[in-house]
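Re: beginner question about structure tokens

> Can someone show what the tokenized structure looks like for a real chain? I only ever see the sequence side.

Sure, here's an example I had lying around. Input first:
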Amino acid sequence: MAIGFVLAMAGGFLGGFQAMGGSFPLFGSRLQQELALESNASFTAVDVDISVGDVILSTGSTFSTSMNWGGSGYALTAQVEGGTLVVRSQSKGNGLGNLKNVSSSVHITVPEETVLEQVSVHAGMGDVSLSDVSVSGTLQVNTGLGDLEGRRLSVQGGAVWESNMGDLTIQGDFPCDLTATSDMGDLELTLAQARSVYTVSATTSMGDVEVDGEGISGRSYDQSGGDWNLTATSDIGNVSLDFG
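And the corresponding structure tokens:
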């Protein structure tokens, strides 16, 4: 395994970011594995799709990706394809039962003032956190089991946040359509825009709805006439909306 690590690192320095990613599927080990990718190779979009693991996307001093994972039959890979950073998980066997002892995390950074064209993050089980990120196109974030958090974000082309079981905490500049849903979890949205720019639909089947600090009688709030659609839905959980 040590020889493989040396070869992978050497290939990265010779061939750049893409050569380093994707060459590290280590299976069958219960030891914690780590891989840090950092080079001058930039990317304009992010596409993460992993079965298990927490994902962090934030600003930093350079374009970089750090990953670690542990548990048998599971591995993470990363590479740049056509300007998109692609992160994937590989596992032996199917079903969550085979991944019950797996743990992993992915931390991606982009330089400050970078504007990404598109961001897509999916984690079957795991928390997702985005901070200080700007996206000119669409943002899609979802997890089957985990909390979703977005801080100081700027998204221009539309945003979708989904968790089957987990809380959503979203704050930023969203002059676009925005959807936030959780089957079981609280929603807290703090938006830079005025309430009047949205057509709003906020509902919960079991919980409270609050808009700009005021409780809403019943379990739904609707407003029409806005340029963009804002949908916030929780089957079991509270929904809180605050506007600029």
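Each token stands for a local structural state, so reading them left to right follows the chain. The chain has two helices and 23 strands.
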